[in-house]
Amino acid sequence: MNIVVIGAQWGDEGKGKIVDYLAGDAQIIVRFSGGANAGHTIVLKDEQFALHLVPSGVLYPDKIVILGTGMVIDPEALHAELSMLESRGINWQGRVFISDRAHIVLPKYRQIDKEMEEKRNKPIGTTGRGIGIAYGLKAFRDGIRLADVFEDERLVNLDAEDRAFIAHWKDWLKQFPINLVDYLDKHRHAYVLFEGAQGALLDIDTGTYPFVSSGMSCAAGAAAQGGIGPRSIDKVLGVFKAYTTRVGNGPFPTEFNPENQGALEDYIRKTGREYGVTTGRPRRCGYLDLVALRYACRVNSIDTLVLTHLDVYDTLPSFEACIAYKIDGKLIEHFPSSIYELEHAEPVLRKFKGWECELKGRSSYDELPIEAKDYISFIEEYTETSIDMISIGYERNETIVRKSPWIR
Ligand code: GDP
User: Fold this and answer.
1) Among residues 206, 222, 237, which one ends one of the domains?
2) 269 secondary structure, DSSP code
3) pLDDT tens figures, 137-155
4) Is residue 275 in a domain?
5) Whole-angstrom Cα distance, residue 18 to residue 13?
């Protein structure tokens, strides 16, 4: 069975925790896109693990984890991450593989990334790790894939510095390559999780272009870049927070206004620990944008939503969610492509009553306060999508499952 887990907002929805939770029942976890610019935080028995490249299932001792075709991989960053895991008792040898079609990030890309960002009159807010350049060169057909590392002929156009870098990592990289398509075909009866990076609104095609990542973070990416065909996807899960966050620049219609919502933003940032895993940058925060969430559900065929960070609202007497936009005086109920429209969209907000009690310790949907259930029902109706899992804390066991995604 093949389940795809993607972010349904602008990333940082808590995919890492959800994939880690679901990985308990999976045999193989494939991350299909992104590079070391993404980051997941997983909390395990008071220990916090920040992962950037390695799929979340790695913390289980027996799971196979695969870096998929759509990923762009800096060998130095991968080595550092695997060494960190090893030093903390996670034995990864023999169960971490890389699609031999995945691309390599070379040191020069970082410099080019920074130079391009400086030239933009409106910076995108890239992490400067050369990820966008790797994707760009891939599209130009000048990239280097893992398979190419072992074929000297493919390296002749590289400059001396890049060739020396590859020569340095070549032997170490020999332990990882697999033909992902063949591997998954051989394991076609396994339970496989496909983990997306970033979120649907940061996808190169479906996101808020140009303020997006350079890779595919939509569900279709699992097929194109995860080694299976689209009809082999059994289920798509969209992870979203009770509110919205965004890192970097770009339109964000429900972003809190510092003048009158500054205290609320500070509270959510502090309670939800909304600081980037990779960069440490404070994340921009705002109310849940249901217009954007419904769009994400439609464009990704999301079968079921996973609501996270519901506990962050525990102490609020009331809160709001955006159900439409007003753009130049007109009521808009769809998610626009125009950056001008998104930047000028005023959110039309619906108010919800808070539950004003701790959700921690509740283990079933029935134990949730009526106000939390009302919020959940409203989101389900608005998006026409069921919410089968609810996360009420960062620990693995702080997860309420209404229906296991592994049940067809
Ligand atoms: P990802 O990139 O989507 O995996 O998200 P991140 O790992 O960047 O951010 C999610 C953060 O929220 C991590 O620090 C998680 O430990 C934490 N987290 C995940 N789910 C919950 C939740 O339900 N409640 C709270 N309070 N924190 C959560």
Assistant:
1) 237
2) H
3) 999 999 999 999 999 999 9
4) yes
5) 9
